[in-house]
Specification:
This protein has seven helices and two strands. It is mostly helical and about 230 residues long. Strands 1-2 form a two-stranded antiparallel ribbon. It starts with 15 loop residues before the first helix and ends with a strand.
């Protein structure tokens, strides 16, 4: 009689050593990835520092964020150079013109404008002499605007053309100086916009930074190790 021995089926059981290997591999992978990501994050620019740099020198923040691609920063820097040169150019031009009309008044109207208020400078350009000015104020009853008839306030133009030349030069000085606050405001605006732009660029670098993490649950919520390394482009 032939007897057949029953065949036992072997269940596919994962060896313990293999599970330990997977665990160690997952931990090592995650640790290495996190270390790499952390190193990359340390190299990422600070949004705050980018903003502050551009407040000091427009464009500096963009260069700090990416010194190989800071085209917009170059525009802000070029704009700052133009504004600064314009400011100091206008200021120097106004100083030169001011010296011109002061010298003209001293030599052709025989009056020293040093220490005089702006109202006096305007009066010298609008009237041929002190008597004409005071008579006009008396007719309009502006008693508080009269000047004393002393040597300090006396003036008398040699001719009307010289007086007109003085007046035109003084008005050009006022025009130049009135533009200086506008240039300062544009400088401040340029710094602010440059800072905000650099801030956004630095923040975008952080938002697109790589991410590494190790989870003890898979994407379905079941027990299991999941190591994730994510790169954004």
């Amino acid at each position: 009689m032939n007897c057949l021995s029953p065949i036992k089926s072997v269940s596919p059981i994962i060896p313990v050593w293999f599970s330990i290997f997977i665990f160690i591999f997952a931990i090592s992978f995650s640790t290495a990835a996190e270390a790499q990501v952390k190193e990359q994050e340390e190299d990422l620019p600070s949004a705050k520092r980018a903003f502050l740099r551009s407040l000091v020198v427009p464009g500096w923040g963009h260069y700090y964020v990416d010194n190989e691609n800071w085209t917009r920063g170059k525009y802000h820097l070029a704009g700052e150079v133009v504004l600064v040169l314009s400011y100091f150019g206008l200021d120097a031009r106004a100083d030169n013109l001011e010296n011109d009309f002061i010298t003209l008044a001293l030599s052709k109207a025989r009056t020293d404008l040093s220490g005089k208020k702006r109202d006096y400078l305007i009066a010298v350009g609008n009237y041929d002499d002190l008597d004409s000015y005071n008579e006009a104020q008396i007719r309009t009853r502006n008693w508080d605007q009269l000047y004393p008839e002393t040597a300090e306030y006396q003036w008398s133009w040699e001719n009307r053309d010289l007086r007109n030349q003085y007046r035109n030069t003084r008005e050009r000085v006022d025009k130049h100086r009135s533009q200086l606050p506008t240039l300062l405001a544009l400088m401040a605006a340029n710094r602010l916009f440059s800072g905000l732009s650099a801030f956004v660029r630095a923040r975008d670098k952080w938002e697109n930074a790589p991410e590494a993490k190790l989870s003890y649950f898979n994407e379905f919520g079941e027990p299991g190790f999941t190591a994730v390394l994510r790169f954004n482009f």
